[in-house]
Design brief:
By secondary structure, this protein is an alpha+beta fold. It has one domain: Glutaredoxin (3-Layer(aba) Sandwich). About 50% of the residues lie in helices and about 15% in strands. A 4-stranded mixed β-sheet has the order 2-1-3-4, with helices on both faces. α1 crosses α3 and α2 packs parallel to α4.
Length: about 110
Amino acid sequence: MTSIAKAFVEKAISNNPVTVFSKSFCPFCKAAKNTLTKYSAPYKAYELDKIENGSDIQAYLHEKTKQSTVPSIFFRNQFIGGNSDLNKLRSSGTLTKMIAELKENKSSIL
């Protein structure tokens, strides 16, 4: 893990309402991005298999979140988990509320 990877992740999650660290070939990543698109979530996806330092970024994400797989999804600076966690939020109705709060620029998301 490099300080470049740490800086990249921290800047990404600070600058985007929703950040998804993904891999282009991952079906769970695709499903998560499809869900976020369906709910009109303002998200930015970073394809770790397509960007420089992708493996270092994934190593830092593992250190930060204790999750070694992708997708890694953040709402503002709050790690919410992967696709199954996103689906739990969707099923409970919480995802709709979280996205509405993001769009209203509320600072409290969860």
